[in-house]
Known about the structure:
This protein is an alpha+beta fold. It has helices at residues 2-20, 225-229, 236-240, 243-255, 282-288, 308-326, and strands at 44-45, 55-57, 74-79, 87-96, 101-109, 115-117, 124-126, 132-140, 143-150, 160-166, 173-181, 192-197, 203-205, 218-219, 258-259, 265-267, 270-274, 298-303, 333-337, 349-350, 355-360. Strands 2, 3, 5, 10, 12, 13 and 14 form a 7-stranded mixed beta sheet that branches. Strands 1-4-11-8-9 form a 5-stranded antiparallel beta sheet. Strands 19-18-21-20 form a 4-stranded mixed beta sheet, with helices on one face.
Amino acid sequence: MLQRTISALMLIFLSLSAFSQEIRLLNPSFEGMPYPGKTPALWRDCGFAGETPPDIQPEPTFGVTKSAYQGSTYLGMVTRDNGTWEKIGQKLPVPLEINQCYVIRMMLAQSEIYASISRVTNQPDNYIHPVRLMIWGGLDVCSPAELLAASPPIDHKDWTEYAFILKPKKQKYDYIFLEARYLNTNDPPYNGNILVDAVSAIIPVDNCAIPKEWDSIKIDEQLDTTAYNNWPQANTQFLAMPFEEKINELCTQLALIRFDAAGNPIDPKNPDEASNGDVIPEPLKKVIAFQQLPGSYLLVILVKDNNKKLMRQKVRNLERIIKQETGNASSHILVRKYYPDDIAPQWHCRLRNDIWAYLFH
């Protein structure tokens, strides 16, 4: 009896401890050898396919010379004019519990020079526009699920300390992600930068109240997170699949696409909703999301139709939708028409809707 009582008390103690202990991040000041496109040790790059990882700064390649606030180096992240942005994450030693309030502090700044090449014009540009820092909770590697906090626009050049309140509302999260984002969801994509250093432990607090001793610290901006939560994220479950499973998943989604008489893709579940720019079939959205995956891939989609005029229209409509959804022509999805010398067995999938596909990796 006594042993059962002690065991019960220990379980209660351990449960309370899990809710009350600080959660310390690994390499919170992003120490490492300064290098462009190199993710700091113990963090994971969760960016877009074909784009470079964030940078360990300061490093002269992009003209970033600001001294670190803590240690020797810090994190540099950018947004780009092609509709992509940078994000890193790591697994937490203890999960963020649902409806539990936490606070986290960090130093933020903007570099007055972040010189690189525009992804749209292919010309030199200074990535100087202000961006926000977004903090996400997630369930798996590179799988953000809920936006927990956002900074105000970061346009100051001096290191400034910010405090963020985190309160998961959907479920508990094992992962945390730091992300550079445009100021508003309806902003045209632009080139911007943000610097991050000296991230504190994540501290549980009561009633989501910032400790009094932090009164001088700037507080996070309370945004309507709905729009940001609906922004596309890389489908990392797809990324983790073996190659053959990737092929099967892509072919499954492509097989669900149908076309109307004008060559607009439609969802067979909602055949009256053509993709005229307002409604994108769900299977096509999943295929387009492929271009967000980290890594070097090229998906070639071939459209076949005995009506050559209609075939060209189908290709144009698919290209238009992909460009519309990605902010620019995707460098990871190529759509083209069928040619007589195309040999069917060379393609990974040849579907009844006359869409063929091949995935290069």
